[in-house]
Amino acid sequence: MVFVKISVVLTGLIVFTQCLKTDVSQCQNGGPVPNVTLTSNGVVCRQSPCNVYTGHAANILVDFISPFYTEQMKPNLTAIAAGAVVPWPSNQKNACDGITNTACPIVKGEHVIYSYKMDILSLFPEIYATLIFSLANEADGQLATCFTVGLQILKH
């Protein structure tokens, strides 16, 4: 698990520890739910909806155990806003480029940390959206991990 630890140490004893991660939900189509940290404007979003700002990027850190062997993974982002389902513009075609702790190919049971810089385009309106984020095996589309999170898109 990847997390940021905040600790207060008195005479060698840790008296307070807090994990900074974002609460996310499981996708309707399944897929293992990862540990996620979504950061916008330098602030970790702890609870959905997460405030994100147009013209700025949100950073998403996805921490999971691979359920299968894969040579390549593809990120898939979809938004549901005002009843419409639309693809989220992606700036990455190969998820292997965003893996920070290992390299593709990934073996079954391997710990994977994936980092993604999600652009919040200036043309986006102020609106609530549900983001569906998945990493899938390039060869057969099988989900390595999937989660949903609410986003409150705000003008900056």
TrEMBL record:
Organism, as annotated: Psylliodes chrysocephalus
A matching Pfam family: E1_DerP2_DerF2
Domain of life of the native organism: Eukaryota
Compartments where found: Secreted
Keywords, alphabetical: Secreted, Signal
Gene3D superfamilies, sorted: 2.60.40.770
Family listed: Belongs to the NPC2 family.
MD-2-related lipid-recognition domain span: 24-151
Lineage, opening ranks: Eukaryota, Metazoa, Ecdysozoa, Arthropoda, Hexapoda
Name of the molecule in the record: MD-2-related lipid-recognition domain-containing protein
Leader sequence residues: 1-19
